[in-house]
């Protein structure tokens, strides 16, 4: 029998109800599993969860850098299961979630890892301006009907062999989600694990392994939509710079852009011809979303290009200041030298 540990990182008491719902959804799974809750540098939340959950879950503090990456890495090290599964603290798993992942794991043992579907639920329905192709901006995955090989999966619904995960050092804890900020740390991990295996490495997407989460109010606005695209573009630039792989790191992102600007806009135009005036808003959102991501990428690349020169300039300034100081000290009278040292 495949032993499973589910790791749930959390960071704030503001999500207390969501955390308990996430834990309960794992405890209700048809396949038995260990629950590991990792608290991100919050002693009050750590104590409160330890009291509330008791022996139903293992509650530990994040041992690494603040953020979801460090929390997940801590959980994987504490976990006892052969298969480690990650769930975010604002998500709820369907009852057959773990069963679906375990079946897929047994059917494709050569896969680097697995990931399931994430349903983003909008209270009151999806806004009519929102293009479904951009569901990832609010934490949703693209609907698929069958298991398929993919380049990467989402960190909030990821299953991976514990030994393989630890062998690559887990998530890069200098990169990723910190508080409410977000970078594509899951994509970076998937690419790094793929590079370790070789050209044939792929992850397995399992649409029957479903989790869901409600889109919070602050993420239902067009302003958030643009900011999230910008952050994704910026994060992907950093990820590509960190990549140790010779593979085409951003190939799927370019394919996504081509698909959005051709098929997505084309479908919206057909909707417009059928009388759906909101299709114009969706077309505008797609174009501006792609533009925002592109600008985020370019600005991040520009900053990365400037930083090395800034460092060289700073080092040169320090060297010059040191040289000037040595020259001054060498030619100074003993009393002047002592006074200079006292001021320093």
Overview of the molecule:
- This protein is an alpha/beta fold and 344 residues long.
- It folds into 2 domains: 4-220, Spore Coat Polysaccharide Biosynthesis Protein SpsA, Chain A, CATH 3.90.550.10; 221-344.
- Helix content is 50%, strand content 15%.
- The chain has 10 helices and 9 strands.
- It has helices spanning 16-27, 43-53, 68-78, 97-107, 162-167, 185-197, 222-242, 251-273, 279-331, 334-343, and strands at residues 4-10, 34-39, 58-61, 83-87, 92-93, 114-121, 148-150, 157-161, 203-214.
- α1 links the parallel β1 and β2 (34-39).
- The protein is globular, with a radius of gyration of 24 Å.
Q: What is the gist of this entry?
A:
The chain is of the alpha/beta class and 344 residues long. It has helices spanning 16-27, 43-53, 68-78, 97-107, 162-167, 185-197, 222-242, 251-273, 279-331, 334-343; strands at 4-10, 34-39, 58-61, 83-87, 92-93, 114-121, 148-150, 157-161, 203-214.
Provide tags for this entry.
single chain; alpha/beta; Spore Coat Polysaccharide Biosynthesis Protein SpsA, Chain A; 2 domains; nine-stranded mixed β-sheet; 10 helices; 50% helix
What fraction of residues sit in β-strands? Answer: 15-25%
CATH fold description of the largest domain: Spore Coat Polysaccharide Biosynthesis Protein SpsA, Chain A
By CATH, the superfamily of the largest domain comes out as Spore Coat Polysaccharide Biosynthesis Protein SpsA, Chain A
**Tally of discrete structural domains:** 2
The rough form would be described as globular
Note the run of SSEs as H and E: EHEHEHEEHEEEHHEHHHH
Largest sheet, in brief, is: 9 strands, mixed
The number of distinct β-strands equals 9
Individual helix count = 10
Using only CA atoms, what is the Rg? 24 Å
* Broad structural category: alpha/beta
- What is the overall pLDDT average? 86
Low-confidence stretches: 319-344
CATH architecture of the largest domain: Alpha-Beta Complex
CATH class of the largest domain: Alpha Beta
Helical content class: 40-55%
Query: How far apart are the first and last residues' alpha carbons, in Å?
Result: 67 Å
């Amino acid at each position: 029998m495949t032993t499973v540990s589910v790791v749930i990182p959390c960071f704030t008491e503001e999500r207390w109800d969501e955390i308990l719902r996430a834990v309960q959804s794992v405890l209700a799974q048809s396949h038995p599993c260990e629950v590991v809750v990792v608290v991100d540098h919050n002693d009050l939340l750590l104590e409160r969860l330890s009291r509330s959950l008791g022996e139903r879950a293992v509650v530990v503090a994040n041992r690494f850098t603040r953020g979801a990456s460090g929390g997940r890495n801590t959980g994987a090290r504490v976990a006892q299961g052969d298969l480690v599964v990650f769930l975010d603290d604002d998500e709820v798993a369907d009852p057959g979630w773990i069963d679906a992942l375990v079946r897929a794991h047994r059917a494709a043992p050569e896969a680097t890892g697995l990931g399931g579907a994430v349903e983003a639920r909008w209270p009151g329905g999806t806004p009519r301006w929102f293009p479904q192709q951009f569901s990832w901006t609010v934490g949703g995955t693209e609907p698929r009907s069958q298991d398929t090989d993919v380049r990467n999966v989402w960190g909030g619904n990821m299953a991976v062999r514990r030994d393989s995960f630890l062998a690559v050092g887990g998530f890069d804890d200098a990169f990723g989600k910190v508080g409410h900020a977000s970078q594509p740390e899951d994509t970076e991990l998937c690419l790094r694990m793929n590079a370790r295996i070789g050209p044939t490495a792929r992850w397995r997407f399992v649409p029957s392994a479903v989790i869901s989460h409600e889109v919070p109010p602050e993420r239902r606005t067009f302003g958030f939509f643009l900011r999230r695209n910008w952050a994704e573009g910026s994060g992907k630039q950093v990820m590509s710079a960190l990549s140790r792989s010779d593979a085409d790191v951003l190939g799927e992102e370019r394919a996504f852009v081509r698909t959005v600007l051709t098929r997505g806009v084309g479908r919206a135009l057909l909707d417009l011809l059928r009388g759906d005036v909101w299709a114009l808003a969706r077309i505008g959102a797609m174009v501006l979303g792609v533009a925002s991501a592109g600008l985020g990428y370019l600005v991040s690349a520009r900053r990365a290009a400037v930083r090395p020169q800034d460092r060289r300039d700073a080092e040169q300034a320090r060297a010059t200041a040191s040289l000037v100081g040595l020259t001054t000290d060498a030619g100074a009278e003993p009393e002047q030298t002592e006074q200079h040292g006292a001021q320093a």
